[in-house]
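Late entry, written up from scratch paper. The run itself happened at the end of the previous shift, but nothing got recorded in the book at the time, so transcribing now.
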Amino acid sequence: MVHFVNRDGQTITASGRSGDSLLDVVESQKLDIAGFGACEGTLACSTCHLILDQEVYDQLGHIVDEELDMLDLAFGLTDTSRLGCQVCLSESLEGMTVRVPEGINDMRRSDDTGSSSNS
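Output as recorded:
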């Protein structure tokens, strides 16, 4: 069981199997977390950025360089930030609460549409 505190403060509780990533849980349970997991877990974005409690963060393994690179792009980065695609459920994490940051850095959403003007 995982408790996600969404951007609006609403808590969404979902379950997954041991070994599932938090991204897997969001996708399989069709949780309403806008923009979450744009790259589908390929470590090419930071849209599955989550903020963990210190005790949960301390239980997780080493962060790989690719995750650190993506976290550098994350909105609202904290000392206990991780990407949901890299955090897998285990018995020791049962019942954890994770917070979704107030915003996301999603390169798909930009004021610049990429269109060029005809001169």
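The beta strands are 2-5, 11-14, 49-52, 81-83, 96-99.
(Scratch paper discarded after transcription.)
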